[in-house]
Amino acid sequence: MNSRDPAPVTEQEGISRSESAFQRAMRYMPGGVSSPVRAFGAVGGNPRFLKRGYGSRVVDVDDRQYLDMLSSWGPLILGHADPEVVQAIKRAAEGGTSFGTPTEAETDLAVTIVEALPSVEMVRLVSSGTEAAMSAVRLARAATGRSRVLKFAGCYHGHVDYLLVSAGSGPATLGLPDSPGVTQGASGDTVVARYNSVQSVEEAFTEFGEDLAAVLVEPVAANMGVIPPEPGFLQSLRSLCNEGGSLLIFDEVVTGFRVGWSGAQAMFNVTPDLTVLGKIIGGGLPIGAYGGTRSVMEQVAPCGPVYQAGTLSGNPVSVAAGLATLRALRSRQPPGSAGDETIYQYLDRLGERLESGICRAAREAGASITVQRVGSMITAFFNEDGVVDLESAKRSDTERFSRFFHAMLGEGVYWPPSQFEAAMISAAHTEDDVDEVVQAVTRALERMD
Ligand code: PLP
């Protein structure tokens, strides 16, 4: 706080500390936030300012505790403040937070990624998923000598200018499919197809195939709510790219190390040319990565001519947090788990329990809810029908979702504040936590009508 700050957060009568904090933040930061969806624009009301997280719980500045189903939008697969991750962060920070030189730990992380993802032989570390997606497309353009990139309506790949075309949750929710400030020139090489529609991709190849550098896809869509790829969809993308000479890029920023150790590419048995990563590989600290075959990756500078760089790329503290997270994912026993259940089997089991619990609660309440889930990623669409693409996602009743969201908050559950997002289960969640969420859903649905 300084003397220019007329509105320090103080206890104000009649309003919560979160509201007071939001009022102050709005004076100094656009919308009071550092990233749009945090502002509750899609659901209305005041965002809760959080001050602490531990395990599956978070606490706001008014000392209200919530069972957290946001998991920081995906990175926190071990939950909040996991002791091993925190220890790794402390140790790394104490040894120096940034060097601007190579470190051995970066190679350790690269090796871990390469061993986990058979499609990846070399990795470049960057600082965010946005940067990774942007760099992967640049590389694909350079490798093919072509300029166009095909993306899917409703898929989000970060706020890269030319990928903010029919993007996902943030922009769709805010009604900004194209952001002002993105020029025609920037988006003119972006071709948009329908998720899960092979036909729309075939049409795009017919029209633009000669100039398509890459097809960029979320192998499980997570930014218009969870939408699994229909059987054969990803395989068809692979074949069309093979025939057309385009690179297939899987954006596994969300799915990487979440749907399984080897990501969606193993789950659906489709091998991309390039993979984009973020979130979990940084264990809750800023990071991103892209990788692929040696021959393609060796075109990146300084090996090759494709320029891409970053002052804090491969930051030692982020890398340490990521390595600790990945180590735990591979070796740790899930909580209360007997026998040799892996963390991914555990997460899937909790996901199944949550899915069936929400479905049961919806049935009992007579509510039209379609639950879609892949492993530990889950969306309850206020939509009677299955959701397969952006168009069907948009048919969801977002007004009812907003009421549901606030009712859940009232029940002490922090659900993602948009219909078009995925709730994320972490390894810190227990069966009891899941049952608590289901009870909250039951009561929330009762309260809504
Ligand atoms: N790709 C996907 C699939 C994402 O969901 C996101 C962010 O949510 C990104 C890329 C961008 O990552 P970041 O927010 O780290 O820039």
Explain this structure to me?
- There is one protein chain.
- The chain is of the alpha/beta class and 449 residues long.
- It contains 15 helices and 14 strands.
- The chain has helices at 17-28, 83-94, 104-116, 129-144, 169-174, 184-187, 198-208, 233-244, 263-267, 294-297, 316-331, 343-365, 390-394, 398-410, 431-448, and strands spanning 50-54, 57-60, 65-68, 122-126, 148-152, 190-193, 212-217, 247-251, 274-278, 288-292, 370-374, 377-381, 413-414, 423-424.
- The strands form three sheets. Strands 4-10-9-8-7-5-6 form a seven-stranded mixed beta sheet, sandwiched between helices. A four-stranded mixed beta sheet has the order 1-2-3-13.
- A hairpin with a 4-residue loop joins strand 2 and strand 3.
- Helix 2 packs antiparallel against helix 11 (316-331).
- It is globular and about 60 Å long.
- The mean pLDDT is 94.
- The structure holds pyridoxal-5'-phosphate (PLP).
- Pyridoxal-5'-phosphate is lined by residues 73, 128-130, 133, 156-158, 218, 222-223, 251, 253-254, 278, 288.
